[in-house]
Amino acid sequence: MRYLDEYRDPVAARKLVQGIERAMTRPWTLMEICGGQTHTIVKFGIDRLLPKALELVHGPGCPVCVTSLEVIDRAHSIASRPEVIFTSFGDMLRVPGSQGDLLELKARGADVRVVYSPLDAVELAAKHPYRDIVFFAVGFETTAPANAMAVKQARRRGLDNFSILASHVLVPPAIEFLLQSPANRVDGFLGPGHVCTVMGTEEYEPLAERYGVPIEITGFEPVDMLEGILRTVEQLEAGEAKVRTPYRRVVSREGNPHARDLLAEVFDVCDRKWRGIGTIPASGYRLSESYRAFDAASRFDVETVETRESPICISGEILQGVKKPLDCPAFSTACTPQTPLGATMVSSEGACAAYYAYGRHLEAATTEVAR
Length: 371
Fold this sequence. Notes:
Layout: H1 10-23, E1 28-32, H2 35-43, H3 46-49, E2 54-58, H4 63-66, H5 69-79, E3 84-88, H6 102-107, E4 112-114, H7 118-127, E5 132-139, H8 144-156, E6 162-169, H9 171-180, E7 188-192, H10 193-199, H11 205-211, E8 215-218, H12 222-238, E9 243-244, H13 257-266, E10 267-274, E11 278-287, H14 296-299, H15 315-319, H16 343-346, H17 351-357, H18 360-370
Parallel strand pairs: 1-2, 1-7, 3-4, 3-5, 5-6, 7-8, 8-9
Antiparallel strand pairs: 6-11, 10-11
């Protein structure tokens, strides 16, 4: 494909791997932030091309994975109401809550619909003035501007029957939380390319300086990933801790000023609970006071719900880079994409889903039989 082949060029990839091998003099552990980066690593076997002393661990970079069980259960409670048309992107429909998922609710008669844009939900509100239209607004900073625009458009058009269930999470506070953890073993980060397209890179600079970790803002193709890994290793070997951007064809230091202004108008920063991790201060968005009337959680009084997590799911440890999917005894047995116990398996960007999709479970089974 034009403009894509060069980022999947095996010759370029081989040279980058050789550069990584030459640069390394000691073991390092790196964490990729985005779930899309995790899938690239597993799909193309990038982790297996690297020196054994260089370990890649998977971070909390899948917004579906880190959406808290409380928010999932609130979504189910709202979607169950007969007056509601509940809308969502398709990746949220099979995420398990305490009791089933949105697809099961739909099968039982709930009006749950997949949309391709939050503005589609706004149009539904215009077409169905006597129904309450709720959009499940999940995501990192990447998707937040479109959701903010939907709320702003609904207010401009006087669509009082539109609201969002907001569960936006922010990357820099999550990185700081991981770095402060006693279990942290990450030496450097491959930063979130698409998030930084919106937000820029400036807010990562204090983290790199404060904790002495290099952060290379990285793309999603194999050559992107290998370049980011090489540059991170070079920083570590040189004793540097800077924020740099090899993904410059998309990312600038200032990001998208118009999108950032829109986010500042519609949302306030708040504490947010991350599934499997816990509450991280100042790590989420909620609607600002002037847009609070469009908050579905308040409108439908579902702020407090009882939750029940699977006792054997280790998604939280996987999201923090402490363990990997193959460390889970339920992986590919009790927990599969068809019967997921946690969001890291059901989400298309989850680490467990990546390992399963690209056959790591089959390799693990073969190894066990050989023993």
